[in-house]
Every structure is written in C-alpha cells, then in structure tokens.
Design brief:
The complex is a heterodimer of chains A (440) and B (808). In chain A, 43% of the residues lie in helices and 11% in strands. In chain A, strands 6-5-9-7-8 form a 5-stranded mixed β-sheet, sandwiched between helices. Chain A is globular, with a radius of gyration of 23 Å. Chain B is an alpha/beta fold and 808 residues long. In chain B, strands 15-14-25-24-23-16-17 form a 7-stranded mixed β-sheet. A 6-stranded mixed barrel of chain B has the order 29-33-30-32-31-34. Chain B has a 5-stranded mixed β-sheet with strand order 2-1-5-3-4, sandwiched between helices. In chain B, strand 24, helix 19 and strand 25 form a beta-alpha-beta unit. In chain B, helix 2 crosses helix 3, helix 9 runs parallel beside helix 20 and helix 15 packs across helix 23. The longest helix of chain B has 14 residues. Classes of the chains: A alpha/beta (440), B alpha/beta (808). At the A-B interface, helix 13 and helix 14 of A face helix 2, strand 6, strand 8 and strand 9 of B.
Chain lengths: 440, 808
C-alpha cells in the first residue's frame, strides 16, 4: 500500500510543475472549499496520530487552540535528529510541496495565518529544496494572501536550526525559533495555549502534516480504514543498522515487525542473527528477536514494553556487543542534554561515566545495579523527555542483557589486570573539555 | 493593571486542610499547612517558575506523574502528598544528582551553615552517594565582577542568577555557556558582570557559587547576628539586614522576604556594599575642631563648647540638614535653630519650592505608593532617573511593564535607562521641564485611569506647578492606585520636611510667622554662621561657588559628618562625628509616606555619639533644654507636633513600616481651603498647557533649534547612583568611582572631533572642569550632561545654562 510514497521517485517531483501534474494542490482547493471545521472534522475522522514520536492525535491537539482574534502559529517540526530517523529527510527532499500543501490545509483548519518550518541545520540540502519549493508556492499563490481566492491567508517561513537534538523537543524548538537558547520550557502551559511568542501554537511533525493532503484526498473515514483501530493509516518506517536493505519503507500499521525487518529490509547480513532492535529510534527500549512478531503499531509496541516513536528501526546483530551500543547511545544523550533540569543533566553524565568505567575495567557487576537504579531515578522526573530517552533504552539493555554485560565487566577487568594497555579504553576524561572561561 | 482579586480555596496536603489563594503555587500554599517542600530554582521574586531543579516534586491525586509543586497552581479540593515513598525516592534522587558535580567541601565553603543545598541534603537526601566518578573541575574562584566571586564547581545551575540578570535587572549580562553537564554561568566574552543590581545574585545563589568578595571568609554563620535595618543611602530606603560580628557590619543583604511596600526584596549595589564606609580609617570618629587653620582631634567637651558659639554669635545662623538625618534629628535641629538660635534659615532641600506648592504636592490624596507603580495602567517618569535617584524603583517599574503590561512614559532631559521599556519617550531641553506636561493628559489616560507620576525634586518650581495642573486634569487626587510619587533629593527628604526642616514651616507643615531663607537663597543671604548636619553644601547643593563664598565668609561653621568632604575640610570650624544608619536609632519617612524605623545594629564606634544626642547637647549649651533623653522621646515629641502622625507609635511602625496616609491622623493634614483651589486654577490656566511637547524622535534632530546661539552646549546635570561619600571610601566600590563624564550626542561629538574616552575641558565664565567624553546616542544634539554630587569636577560649579567644550 503506497500512499505517502506513491510516485515519490518520479524525477522532478520536488518542483511545482511535476507536483501539480500529479494532482498536487488539488487537495488544498478541496479543503478551501470546505469550512475549517469540516476540514478539522475530516482530519479527526482519520484519527491521524502525530508522527514525531508522541503519537498524539493531531485533530485533538488542533482542537486545544483557543478560538477568537489572536496571533496563532503553526510550526512544522523538521528538526529530525533522533538517531535512526531519516524519514522526514526523504519526504522533504523528494516531495516538499506535499508538506507545504499539508501546512496550508492545516493552518486553514486551525485558523492560523503564520506558519514556520524549523529544519535542522544539517539538512542544508533539503532546506535548499524546501526553500525553492516555498518560493514556487508563493509565486503560484498557494501561500500568501487570500490563497486561491479564498478567505485563507498564511505566511510560511523556513528557519534553519544550528544543530541541537533538544531543539526537536517542541518547546525547545519554540525557544530556539524565538532566537533564545534552545531549552525546553515547563509544561503546562502547553504550546497549544501558550507557544511561540506566547501565542497559541500548533506544532506537528513533517510526516504528520505531509499526510494531511492525502487524508483530504481520500476522506478521513476512508483513511481510518487503513491500519489498525487505534493506529490508522500508513507510516514511513526507517530501517537502519545491521540490515541488508536499509532505507525508508511505507508500511501499513499492524503488520508484524518481522515483515518489515526481514521482508522489506532483508534481515541482517548473511550468517548473522538479530541480537536486539530499537523499534522506534534510539530512545525506545530495545526488543529482542523474540519480539519480532509484535504487530508494528503504537499500542502493540507499547504493550511489548517499547514504543513506536518515530518508527525508526535500528537492528543490531550478534556481531556487536550491548556495551558498545550502550556507550554510543549514552554518549549521544549526555552530549545533547541541555543541562536545564537536574536528573537529565547529571543522570546522563553519570551514566556515561559508569559505562566508560565498565570499559576501562574498573567496574563490578554491582555497578549495573546502580546504573539500572539511576535510570529509574531519571524516568518521569525530568522537565522534558530527553532524560527518559536515554534512561528507557539503557534500562532495557541492562535488564535484558545483564549476563552479557556482567561478562563484559569481567573481561574488561581481566584485560585491565593483565595490563594490556592497548586494549583498555581510557576513562572518558577527554570529554571534560569545558574549560573555564576566565573573567578579567 | 489593577491588582487581581484573591479567591481563597481549600486543599489537602499530607492530610492537613489548608486554605490558600487560588492560583498560588503549591509550594507556597504548603507553607500554610506547615509543610515544607524543598526547592532550589523556585523564587517567586524572579517571576514565572522554570521547574529546572526538580527538587519540589510531589504527588497529586489524579495525576499519574509526580508534579513540580513550584509550578502547580493550587485548585480547590486538590489532594497532595509530600511524604510518600515515591516522593521520597524522587527527592533522594534529585539530591544525589545535585551532588554528582557539587564538591563536598562544606567545611571550607563560605556558604556553609547558611546553605540551602546543605540544609536540603540533610533534610531530604539519602545521606550517602553512590557516585565515585571524577567531578567536573574549573579554575576557582574567579572574579565575576569586582564585588562577586564565582566558584563554578559549586554551581548547581539553578538558573536564579541568570534569570535575575535577564528578567529582573534586564541587563542581559549573565548567560549559560556550553550545555548538559558542561554548562556554566558566564558573561558574554568573559566581561565582568558590572551592573547596578549585580549583588542580588549573591543573595539568590542557593549554594556557595556566588559570594560577596568583601564578605567571603570574614565570618561564619554561627558567629554572626542578623539585625534588621533600613538603608538610608538613597530615598528608596530599602529594608536590609545587617550581618553583624563583633559590633561591626560585615555584610548587608536584602531581607527575605522583602518588603513589598518598599523594595520587593532587592537591593542595589550601593546599598549592598557601601556599608564598608562604616569601618574604614577615612571615617570621622572623633570630634574635630579647627585650630590655627587645621582641623584637630578634640574632646566632645571642647567641640561642644565651640559649637555653643552658634548662640553667642552676632548675626543669623543658617542650617542645612542632609538627607540621611532621621526625623528625630531633623525635629530637634529645627527646635535648636528656631528656639535657641532664633533663626528660620533652615532647609533640607536643593530647590526653592514655595510653602504652598510643597504642601499641596505632599497632600495625602495625591500620594501614590510604591506598589501602585507596579500595578498602574500608566506610569510617567518625569524629570528623574530612577536608576540613579532611587534605584530600586527602576526595578519596580520594569516589573510593572514586563509582568503586568503597564505602560511607561518617560519624560526626561537625559536619556533614561528605562527608555527601552517605555511606550513613549519625551525629551526636552534641560530646564524646560515645565513645557512638556501640558497636553500629556489624554495620551496618559489611554491605557486606563490608574496613573502614577514619578517625579524628581530637582524639576523645580515651574515644573511642579505644571505637574499639579496635570494631576488635576487626570483627577489623580483621591484615586486609589494612582497619584504622585516624588523622589526627593535627600534620602529622608520627606520625613525632614514633615519634621519641620523647612524655612517656611514647622513640624507638620505648620506655617511659621517669619519665613526664613531656604537652601537656594541662603548662600546669598546675611548668614554669618552655618550649622550643617550631615551635609556639605559645596557638594550637595546646586551652586557650589556661592556656597564656597558663603562658608568662607562665615565666622563659624559647625558640622556633623562621617566623611570629611571638601567643603567641610576647607571651612568647618567644628565637626562632630556623625553616626551611620546602622548605628542610628530613629525613624525616617519613605517618599510614599511610609514611616520606617532605624534600629541600632552596632554600637557607636570610638567616640561617635548618636546624632540626636549631639543635637540635644548643642541645644543645651545654647540654652535650650529639649527634654529628650532617648530617641523614642524625641519621636514622641515629633509625633505630637505633627498632627497627621496621630496614632503612630514606634510599635505600630514595627519592622515593615506604616504609611501615615493610611493612619487615623491623615485627615489632619493641613487643609489649605479655598485659597489653594484658586491658586491651582490659576496655575492651570497660566501653565503651559497648550504647548506641544518635544517628542523623543523629533527632538533628536536638535531639540528644535539645535545648539544655543553662542556656540556652546546646553548643560544638563544628573546625580549618578555612585555619587556619594560613602561609596568613595568603600574599598570594594573603588571601581565605581566616576570621574566627571560628559555625555555628548554623536552629532556634537562628530562636530567637535571628540570620541568616547577623550579627556575634554568643560568651561563657563572662567570655571574649567575636566571630563571624560562619553558619546551616547539618545542625547539630544546641542546638550551635554554632566554629573553632580561627585568629589571632583562636579557640575555644580557651573551655574549658567550653557557651557563651552574644548579638547585640550
């Protein structure tokens, strides 16, 4: 079933003429002929859930926006920074107009006349394409004043980030967009009530908004027939790691994970077996090969103890140690923690030091208990979910691969004791680079 | 905006029924039920909570996740638990996390013993840590500024100091650098954090990361005592706490919580650090008598005998009282001058407002309070620079604008620090104050009827008339939440006037039969002797040359002073050592009418005696027994002499003060009857009501007619926040000692070939001052601003409206 990816590889699709020839912006015409309430109801009927990770129903979120005369904003979150996630990149690169069309329809439905796209700075190539597409859309009158002669006016500004994972967190993104240091804000108030420049703000992921024209095209009720009861429609799954055919695949919700990893991705390399896999990006608790038959949708994965997240499957085969993956993961989150709240700032930093100590042969199995316990102290106690994003997978790794980790500890201790210095990874003091800035 | 109304609701915390105002944060409401919830980043003074430290997590029934109680407004029927297993686990966890990078060196930390992190670790922590990895290291301590040391290893990144800098003082100097566990508090490019309110971050810091350089390692919390007091270094009269050890003030901090009616819990750096003037060698601590042209140390007996010459003197005595004198001292001095010296040449002001104007402007119905400044619809700052004249009011105005959407109109000759917060800025030429107020009424009324006009005593009589007319037009009299708030030039200017230190009125503004000379007339009068109580007119009064001549001419000059300033060094015959605000016992009156009490925090050092006692002694030797054996006795006399102080006692003033306008005696304020109405009508019609004010934008092109005809520049003056003898002798404030600065417009600077930092000469009729040029955008073309009140090259040497500028 191809919906979002239908014709995605057609040459020139990123340009307006090709997009229009394929029926582009027809859904916008259709939506503008409807009342905003009807459009919102249609999106509601589709039961479209946010594709950025949290899976909140889009129409419900849009419904939280207060009515009346005030500055409201729509922000498209294109700060795709989750390790393992690269779906938005392909969507923007190959079919930027579908995203623009979705933004214009969503802003009509929610009564918004100012929209922003916040794209991560590293997506420079995609940002250039998107910028050109926005210019084309302005030129053609799909964005701007009284779009296609309707009552609807919306402006659209593309903003490039400067490279921080935390700016993908919706409130951190808002601060960054306002020109401040990108730190998450305390919630409540939620962005729908008090967001960008303190105005009500609808924030959605690229894929969510990209899906909107397709919903308008086929009708929300029809769309809801795809997938499962609670996870309707289709989803772009990004498969990476130890896999034969990595890439983005559009899947219908509810198919078994095995079908994605083996059927679409071709499974791990010849002669290798899956050790574990992240079902929804690096921040989802890991599942093992015993979980491969879990239906791939929001609720089934939650029931299996993990989450769908951004639907970014990272496969790890038996050629890699758990510790190695854990080290990379923890280093990433410790590096990206903004430092605003205590459990995340200190918890990620502490966990990294513990992992490094295991590798240098200075840990005992008791440290695994501390590590697991520290993760529980992070989960649920933080200002935003970045801390949880490290603590959940790390917690799951310690729980599911305790034996292997204990063996690693013993092996590292033995190496250290044997004094084979070339095998010992030095303690991560090199990370302590934040030198003082002298004050004169 | 009008103050929001409070609705009381009920909630349950740890099984206790607690009543609290709806919307109050849970952490505060819990205190009502004697439940203490620990926190670091929360500080209501700083505005909206940030929820960063996660220390205040509690369980609320019906909400699955633990909630930060600092950011959860209470609702009716809420059920809260702070002592469950889950909450304890979370609290232990946060303490453990906080100590991951915090050095455990409390015994050598200056904060030890008064450290919230220490207290909370003991109260809510597990008592042990499982963290055995290396902690982060920084070079420490570093100077964040000349008065603040920063220890970044101890910092728990609670956000308080950075929020203060960005959201309260709005100086935007403190920032976070780096990220995650590498985050540290810094300034842009490592510049020192020099700002008028910087010291507040020391009070705010919940750990030993930010410490006061003059205080650190001078005392331990267990060998100090706290003494509540009032800072009288400026009219703001902030409520402070003196940290006292061995009869010495070691430190000054804001009281916690602050006095909402006065300072809102903040202090300026002058108030925080100039206490050092109490204990330096430069302070006068013994009486001085001039002998053979030299001031020499003398006994009190000798000095008093010499001072008794005031009554034996042929000719009139003129008396000036400085702003730091208490009401009691002012009251006794006016008795001394009137009863024993038979003179009415007595003043505490720097301008010559008429008796009627003075009284009318002080009428209770017209007075705004400090909180009114925050909650008004519109505030007009007229002829004053709050940052210099009454610093803490600057923060209050900023708060009104940023938190309550208050509209601010700034009408000043000199660019103001508040310009960027104002919805409208009006610039006028120095001396043209009176011309801008007419026609302002309609635009002031746009946002609402609650209008507060903050104005400076220095605006002068014509502007005061226009001000009164504007107040009439706006109907400010009797309106709650609106009115006038005068910033007097002396700290206790209001109290001294009410005590009768005026040439035309006795205590309570009671008119006297023969009005004497005021401060502006005195130097040109017939006085042959002067009595100067805690003031040096050569520095404090506008016309330096005239005062130098007058003091030179005088046969006897008796002074009370704690610092030997130029005029006294040259001309005083007798100097009594004056006591300071930490030593005084007495009362002062805040500009909004709040009587506040100074209590003796430390003993009088060396041979210093209480000011009231010295005055009483002098009076006795001049043949007047004032009948006062203690300061409270003097207050009793004062209170019975001032009708509108009726019912106010030292007890009722208490620790937070009481506004007499809200007391039972307020109705006894002298009513000027029908006459005043006529006068006010006259002033309204004769006032310059129809003249269009110069708007900031248009006057920038040259104030209408550019530079004055003779080629010079118009002279405007201001008194910088740091202009005070106390600052000059405080060791750690030496970095603030301003030499004369001439603020020039970029246009004039370009025309004259002057750049910022150049040394220039300012001259007028043969008087020459040396100044450093400061090119400041916003200064109107054709005008130069110079500082007064400073030790050298003060602009009060210049009395004509224009000056010549040259580059030597």
């Amino acid at each position: 079933m191809l919906l979002l990816f239908d014709g995605i590889d057609e040459p020139g699709l990123s340009t307006l003429p090709v997009y229009e020839r394929r029926g582009g912006y027809q859904q916008l015409r259709k939506a503008l002929a409807m009342t905003p309430e009807d459009v919102l109801a249609d999106i509601g009927d589709s039961q479209l859930r946010g594709r950025g990770g949290a899976g909140f129903r889009m129409a419900q979120k849009a419904g939280f926006l207060p009515h009346g005369e005030m500055e409201k904003y729509l922000v498209c979150n294109a700060d795709e920074s989750e390790p393992g996630a690269f779906k938005d990149r392909e969507l923007i690169q190959k079919n930027p107009h579908a995203l623009i069309e979705g933004i214009v329809i969503a802003s009509w439905a929610a009564g918004i006349d100012r929209a922003f796209i916040y794209i991560r700075g590293e997506y420079a190539y995609q940002a250039d394409i998107l910028e050109a597409a926005i210019a084309e859309a302005y030129e053609a009158g799909y964005i701007g004043e009284r779009i296609l002669g309707s009552e609807h006016s919306v402006s659209l500004v593309l903003h490039r980030g400067a490279g921080a994972y935390i700016c993908g967190e919706e409130t951190g993104l808002l601060d960054s967009l306002e020109g401040k240091r990108g730190n998450p804000r305390l919630k409540p108030p939620f962005p729908a009530i008090e967001g960008l420049y303190d105005g009500p703000t609808l924030i959605n992921n690229v894929e969510t908004l990209y899906t909107v024209p397709y919903i308008i095209g086929m009708g929300g009720k029809e769309y809801a027939k795809l997938g499962t009861d609670t996870s309707t429609g289709t989803k772009i799954a990004s498969i990476s790691g130890d896999i034969q055919r990595p890439g983005n695949y559009e899947i219908e919700f509810g198919i078994p994970a095995r079908e994605i990893i083996y059927g679409l991705g071709g499974g791990p390399p010849e002669g290798r077996d899956i050790k574990f896999w992240f079902p929804g990006g690096s921040s989802s608790p890991v599942l093992t090969k015993d979980d491969l038959d879990v239906p791939y949708d929001y609720d089934s994965l939650a029931k299996a103890g993990s989450m769908l997240g951004t639907a970014s499957i990272i496969v790890v085969d038996d050629s890699h140690s758990v510790l190695e993956v854990m080290h990379k993961l923890v280093k990433f989150y410790a590096h990206e923690s903004c430092g605003k709240c205590v459990p995340c700032r200190e918890g990620t930093n502490w966990t990294l030091k513990m992992v490094q100590r295991i590798e240098s042969g200075e840990a005992t199995p008791m440290d695994l208990d501390i590590m697991a316990n520290v993760q529980t102290h992070i989960i649920g106690n933080c200002l935003c979910v970045l801390g949880d994003a490290m603590a959940m997978p790390v917690g799951s790794m310690v729980e599911k691969f305790r034996q292997e980790l204990e063996a690693e500890i013993e092996a590292a201790r033995a190496r250290a004791a044997a004094g084979s210095a070339e095998d010992v990874i030095p303690i991560g003091v090199a990370d302590e680079h934040a030198g003082p800035v002298p004050v004169h | 905006m009008p103050r929001p109304e409070e609705k009381i609701i009920q909630l349950t915390i740890d099984g206790r029924e607690v009543k609290a105002p709806e919307g109050q944060m849970l952490v505060d409401a819990a205190k009502e039920g004697d439940v203490e919830i620990p926190y670091f980043c929360y500080q209501p003074k700083l505005g909206d909570p940030v929820g960063a430290c996660r220390m205040c997590l509690v369980e609320i029934e019906g909400i699955p996740k633990l909630q930060t109680s600092c950011s959860t407004p209470v609702k009716d029927g809420m059920v809260v638990h702070t002592h469950t297993e889950r909450v304890h686990t979370a609290q232990n966890a946060v303490v453990e996390f906080l100590l991951v990078n915090h050095p455990l060196d409390c015994p050598v930390c200056d904060k030890g013993g008064e450290c919230p992190l220490q207290d909370i670790t003991f109260g809510w922590g597990l008592g042990k840590s499982r963290f055995i990895e290396p902690k982060r290291h920084f070079v420490k301590p570093l100077s964040l500024s000349p008065v603040i040391a920063i220890d970044r290893e101890r910092c728990i990144l609670c956000y308080r100091c950075v929020r203060f800098s960005q959201e309260i003082a709005e100086d935007y100097q403190l920032i976070f650098a780096e990220r995650g566990a590498h985050t540290f508090v810094a300034t842009h490019d490592g510049h020192p954090y020099v700002a008028p309110f910087s010291g507040n971050i020391i009070d705010l810091c919940p750990v030993g990361a930010l410490t006061s350089k003059p205080y650190r390692f001078r005392a331990r919390p267990w060998d100090i005592e706290g003494a509540g007091g009032v800072c009288t270094l400026c009219p703001a009269q902030c409520n402070v706490e003196f940290t006292v050890r061995d009869e010495k003030v070691m430190r000054v901090t804001a009281r916690d919580p602050g006095n909402e009616g006065v300072d809102d819990g903040w202090l300026c750096d002058k108030g925080r650090f100039a206490y050092q003037a109490m204990h330096v060698d430069d302070r006068i601590t013994v009486p001085l008598v001039r002998e053979g042209g030299e001031l020499r140390e003398a006994s009190w007996e000798r000095a008093l005998d010499a001072a008794a010459g005031l009554s034996k003197h042929q000719g009139r005595v003129g008396a000036l009282v400085g702003g730091q004198a208490t009401n009691e001292e002012g009251f006794l001095i006016q008795r001394l001058v009137r009863e024993a010296l038979s003179s009415s040449d007595l003043d505490c002001r720097v301008t010559g407002l008429s008796g009627e104007l003075t009284r009318t402007l002080a009428a209770p119905a017209l007075q705004a309070t400090v909180p009114d400044v925050e909650f008004a619809h519109t505030v007009l700052a007229f002829g004053c620079e709050p940052l210099d004249d009454m610093p803490i009011l600057d923060l209050r105005i900023r708060k009104g604008v940023s938190r309550h959407g208050m509209k601010l109109v700034v009408a000043t000759a000199r660019p103001s620090a508040l310009d960027s917060n104002a919805t409208r800025v009006i610039r006028y030429d120095p001396g043209e104050e009176a011309s801008v107020l007419g026609g302002l009424a309609d635009s002031l009324r746009e946002a609402g009827e609650d209008i507060v006009i903050v104005w400076g005593e220095r605006v002068g009589p014509a502007a005061a008339e226009a001000l009164l007319a504007l107040a009439d037009q706006l109907g400010l009299a009797g309106r709650d939440g609106a009115g006038l708030l005068e910033i007097p030039s002396g700290s206790n200017g209001r109290g001294l006037r009410e005590a009768g230190v005026l040439p035309f009125a006795g205590p309570g503004y009671a008119p006297v039969a023969d009005a004497g000379l005021g401060a502006t007339e005195m130097p040109d009068g017939e006085n042959t002797a002067y009595y100067l109580f805690e003031t040096d007119p050569v520095r404090d009064q506008p016309n330096r040359a005239a005062w130098e001549r007058a003091l030179q001419r005088a046969g006897l000059v008796v002074a009370h002073a704690s610092v030997l300033t130029e005029g006294l060094r040259e001309h005083a015959n007798v100097i009594f050592p004056a006591d300071t605000y930490a030593e005084k016992d007495g009362t002062v009156v805040h500009p909004d009418g709040r009587l506040q009490r100074l209590r003796t925090a430390i003993a009088h050092p060396h041979e210093v005696r209480a000011g009231w006692r010295a005055v009483a002694e002098i009076a006795r030797r001049c043949g007047l027994d004032v009948g006062v054996l203690t300061s409270p006795m003097a207050f009793a006399q004062l209170a019975s002499a001032v009708p509108f102080y009726e019912g106010i006692t030292l007890e009722s003033i208490g620790g937070r003060g009481v506004r007499w306008q809200e007391g039972e005696g307020a109705g006894a304020f002298p009513d000027l009857g029908a006459n005043s109405d006529i006068d006010r009508e006259t002033s309204q019609t004769s006032g310059p009501t129809d003249e269009a004010p110069h708007s900031g934008a248009s006057s920038n092109g040259g104030g209408g007619d550019g530079a004055p005809a003779n080629g010079g520049l118009r002279l405007g003056t201001y008194r910088p926040i740091w202009a005070s003898p106390e600052v000059e002798i405080s060791p750690s404030l030496q970095y603030t000692i301003a030499h004369q600065q001439a603020e020039l417009s970029p246009e004039d600077a370009a025309r004259l070939g002057i750049a910022s930092g150049d040394t220039i000469e300012v001259s007028q009729n043969g008087t020459r001052l040396s100044a450093a040029a400061v090119v400041r955008s916003g200064v109107p073309e054709g005008t130069v601003f110079l500082a007064t009140g400073i030790a050298q090259d003060s602009a009060n040497a210049l009395t004509e409206p224009t000056v010549e500028i040259s580059k030597p």
